[in-house]
Amino acid sequence: MQLFGIPNCNTVKKARDWLASHQIAYEFHDFKKNGISQTLLENWLTQRPWEKMVNRAGMTWRNLSDAEKAAVVDAQSAIQLMLAKPSVIKRPVLVKNGNIIGLGFDEATYIELFK
Hints:
The protein is of the alpha+beta class. The protein contains eight helices and four strands, in the order βαβααααααββα. The chain has a four-stranded mixed beta sheet. Helix 1 links the parallel strand 1 and strand 2 (27-30). Helix 3 (38-47) packs across helix 7 (75-84). The protein is globular.
């Protein structure tokens, strides 16, 4: 299982702390340090709509110009933005066997996933 995110993100920290406290093993993939591939993003967008994968509540999105925001209209334009600015990806992304099993962190969802 892999957890994708950014180490200093509070939501990612909550997810990592929850997994550690429940002794659930995972591999952490840091978007900033390790990057993200177009192939992986394309795979994810077959599982979740691009509108869910782009975090429009975060600072990265809010700091984009109106033109940059307006240019994100479909999966392909969302992928280009996520490749250029991985911080705009909703996080954490919890993946098992190539499938997204969690997007963002919600304790009730994690409890359900791992019961």
